[in-house]
Amino acid sequence: MSKINILDKFVSNRISAGEVVEKPSSVVKELVENSIDAGADKIIIEIEEGGIKSISIQDNGSGIEKDDIKLAFMPHATSKIKTVADLDCIGTLGFRGEALASIASVAQVEMMSKTSSEELGSTIKIDGGEFGELGETAMNNGTKILVKNLFYNTPARRKFLRKSKTEEGDITDLVERIILSNPNVQIRYIVDGKIKYNTTGGGLYANIYTIYGKETIDNIIEINFERDGYRLTGYIGKPEISKANRTYQTLIVNGRVVKNAFISNAIQEVYENFLMKNKFPFFVLNLNLPKDSVDVNVHPSKMEVKFENLGFIRTLFTHAVYSALMNANYTRNVEENKQEDKQESNEDKTSTFVSSLTPLSKDEGISFLQEKDIFSETNNLKEVNLNYEDFNTQSLPNLETNSNESRLTDFILNTKKKTPFEMTQFQETIENTIPRAKIIGTIFKTYIIVEKENDIYMIDQHAAHERSLYDKFYSSVQNSNVFKQGLITPYTLKLNAIEYDFFNRNIDVLNSVGFETEDIGNNQIKITSIPYILPIEKIEDYFNYFLSNLQDYSSKASDYFKTSLMQHACKMAVKSGQVLSVNEIETLISEMENHVLLCPHGRPVLIKITKSQIEKWFKRIV
Predict the structure, then answer these.
(1) Whether 137 and 114 share a structural domain
(2) Residue 97's pLDDT band (cuts 50, 70, 90)
(3) d(Cα 618, Cα 622) in Å, to the nearest integer?
(4) According to DSSP H, which parts of 309-451 are helical?
């Protein structure tokens, strides 16, 4: 007796449905993607009880002709591709022809649709894969699909559905991504009869405000970067709005929301010089590239893609994000306290002053990269020509001593930071137009006070110097200009065959960051010199890190140094409590022109207080 059975269509359809319809949010995703592919610019999404009871999607798209209504629910039926060659150049969100058939096999579905060439729309009901009669109905152009009682006929699947609020949360997160990836489409999202989102199709900036609110919109930086037919647009967040996880990151490829750990990690690497530990950047980025350069036919969920030129794309993202971060405004200011009109005690006023440090609005404040002549009195400083050849661990100045003006000027390295971008686009418009600033002095032996027109600026001397040093150290590593220190007793690496092969293939990478090695045979490598920024006791940790990247080490030999560089810069920067001379302050301010106004750990360097704000505190104005 034969043991092999041919499954009937009802069983096979329900099995295949599991790949497409995992939960209610999967239904919403597939149906909304169909609406977008149909050219809809107005979509209404309505759910009840987390989509378990019902899901309704209505659009004003092109609709489905009467003769195609039943055909649309057949497995592998689609209007979006015809031949295998079409898979190499997919321009629609859907293309597999599985969604409607899968949904109809595990739910009760009703569809109404009308095209512009028809006088009446067509309607049909499908119950667990069983078709009802095709009818007619009066309706506007477009399509409406109602999905009820999801998984009602598959108890094993239904019992694994989560609480309705949890399923609702997944759908809401999905709808937010759809809103961000389709900024010109009007989307109304209704949950249990209440409107949650109602966008106007006014663009990405407006949609970010709708979803994330004012604090986010006041702290985002626009990205618009194009190279060789690849265009990256959208917004990234300033470090002030960094998050505790990656759920605030939206990556869009040719209009499709996707997940790609490689790109997310590349962006994270750029941000590491700006963020505090265990924080993740906010971003909404859309990459438009040639359709034949990306494969979206990787998984039924269509959330994963493969890129043809991954290295180029990584460079595109890192350069665009780095450029935007370097040119951003990181000045913070003390804003007006909105509760000042209330009767408050003097103690309350003091508390208000301390606690009211908030990020600048989009059009306020200054950045040294944008307005580098702001402190124009520093333009006549004496030059400091100390370079990396003069700078090594055996001849570092002692910053804890009480030497005079030469202490800081001799310590700051006056080499320009090398970056892939020229940040001079603001020079012509600001040259000779900004009045001179005046250095008032320091308070608490920590904060430098500078007056400029109607504003006061407070500079954290340690944070400013730490940023300057870190950028210079990091630039030296990136540009293979690292001072080496020889080891009195060489360090020997004992490797297995795979590690030995990997080590030799990447020897140039190690040499570029300051290592000198010698192959002594038997899978052993002798290390004779190491970078000066790497403590000797950390050699073993570094090579454990290096050899942990056997699959794709690429050119990331400097990655391990980032924490060491931060610690090195922090240790060597001027400290809180050190008294600086006027000349030292001028030199420090001059150095700030070449760096972002955040320390490597993400703390602000500069805070602004306006004259009008001070006068409000003293009740001179109301």
Answers:
(1) yes
(2) low
(3) 9
(4) 310-326, 346-355, 406-411, 427-430
Residue 470 banded pLDDT, cuts 50, 70, 90: confident
What is the tens place of the pLDDT at every residue in 47-96? Answer: 999 999 999 999 999 999 998 888 888 776 565 444 544 445 555 665 55
Domain hosting residue 431, numbered range? 336-475+570-617
Residue with tokens 């969604």: 99
Residue-wise burial string across 17-50, b where 16 or more C-beta atoms lie within 10 A, e elsewhere: beebbbbbbbbbbbbbbbbbbbebeebbbbbbeb
Greater model confidence, 231 or 415: 231
On the CB side of 605, CA atoms within 13 Å amount to 26
Looking at the domain assignment, is residue 563 inside a domain? no
Domain presence at residue 391: yes
State residue 252's pLDDT score.
93
Q: Is 251 part of any domain?
A: yes
> Where is pLDDT greater, at 172 or 592?
172
In one-letter notation, the amino acid at residue 477 is: V
3-state secondary structure 188-236: EEEECCEEEEECCCCCHHHHHHHHHCHHHHCCEEEEEEEECCEEEEEEE
Has residue 398 got a pLDDT over 80?
A: no
Domain boundary among 507, 529, 558: 558
Specify the higher pLDDT residue, 547 or 230.
230
Q: How far is CA 79 from CA 65, 182, 599, in A?
A: 12, 22, 54
Would you say residue 565 lies in a domain? Answer: no
Residue 544 has pLDDT above 60, yes or no: yes
Non-local (6+) Cβ contacts of 143 within 8 A are 34, 35, 38, 57, 58, 59, 61, 63, 64, 111, 112, 113, 114
Q: How far apart are CA 60 and CA 573, in angstroms?
A: 62
Query: Do 62 and 192 lie in a common domain?
Result: yes
* CATH (domain of 469): 3.30.1540.20
Name beta bridge partners: 516.
529
Based on the fold, state whether residues 462 and 583 are members of the same structural domain: yes
The answer on 106 and 18 residing in a single domain is yes
The CATH number of residue 529's host domain is 3.30.1370.100
Are 59 and 170 in a shared domain?
yes
> Are 464 and 509 contained in the same domain?
no
Could you tell me the CATH number of the domain that includes residue 45? 3.30.565.10
Rounded to 5 degrees, what are φ and ψ at 433?
-110, -15
* Residues 362 and 440 grouped into a single domain: yes
Q: Taking the CA of residue 162 as centre, how many other CA atoms within 13 Å lie in the half-sphere pointing to its CB? A: 12
Q: Which of 115, 66, 122, 71 is nearest to 97 (CA)?
A: 71
Q: How does pLDDT run across 189-219, given as a tens digit for each residue? A: 999 999 999 999 999 999 999 999 998 999 9
Percent of the chain's residues with pLDDT above 90 = 30
Count CB neighbours of 274 within 10 A: 24
Helix axes 582-592, 461-478, angle to 10 degrees: 50
- Residue at which a domain ends, from 167, 201, 235: 201
Q: Which helix (H) or strand (E) holds 542?
A: helix 539-547
Residue 271 sits in a domain whose CATH number is: 3.30.230.10
State how many domains the chain has: 4
Contacts of 122 (CB under 8 A, 6+ apart): 64, 65, 66, 69, 112, 113, 114, 134, 135, 136, 137
Same domain, 148 and 28: yes
Q: What is the pLDDT of residue 358?
A: 30
Four-point Cα dihedral 313, 317, 318, 323, nearest 10: 140
Least confident among 56-70, 415-429, 521-535: 415-429
C-alpha 81 chain-centroid distance: 33
pLDDT exceeds cutoff 50 at 349: no
